[in-house]
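quick one before i forget lol
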Amino acid sequence: MKGLNVARTFSFARGICFLVAPIFLVTLIAARPALSAPINYGNFSGATVDYLQVTEDANSAGDNPPLFGPPTVSGDSIDFDPVGFNAATQNGGTDLTDGNLTFMIKAKTGHAITNLTIAEAGDVTLGGFGSDTTFASVATRIFLDVVEVDGQPISVVSNNNLSIPFSPSGGTFGLGTDGGGGPIYSASWNGTAAININNFLTSKGVPFVFGATKVNINLDNTLLAISQPGTSALIAKKNANGVVITVNTPEPATAVLALLGLAGLAATRRR
């Protein structure tokens, strides 16, 4: 990851840093178009769903895919083990790494996508003696589009207000507050977002019997590191279970029972 060499002087307390960081991060992202060709890993088959057109790209200057790396599928989980997906800086520099991951989840016959879980993990190290001006942060926004329900295309319903909550420290780490001012702070971080697709469809007024059968996912993953002179900051997604997406679907027998129940209810209403 190339440092951005942006000179920054902060005299904020930790809380102000945390307010400024997202704004600063969004500004950097908006200013940088993707500079490299995306990697399309293709399609992957799980137990009850398929992951289609799994593609990653890098949206930050000096970064090239792969960042997430090629996926593996076990059961209904798709797993990425990032290598080199990090942001690192020292002696007053700034580094932003922005990776983008997109794919479609398609339910196999007799199944529906009822729940989606996205988990990420990594570590952070801050070194030297300084304040919260030396810090690192992780953020992941989730863009979700349901495009098919019960095997039938629908007008797309979207949720663009999803994100992964990270711990500890909300995914933002300061050398002053978290590291006691120095000489070193090191920790592992993780986060999980659990999304109930059926509840989402209900909230949007979309009727269904089983649930969504095609869902598009777009993950915008950002790592940010800023250091003051004489200090360093490094934050990385881990190379083991770094990003795991798991889908839960009803068993065919459950789906049949639900359909029979609805048919019985309809017959009762007609009588």
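fyi The chain has three helices and 15 strands.
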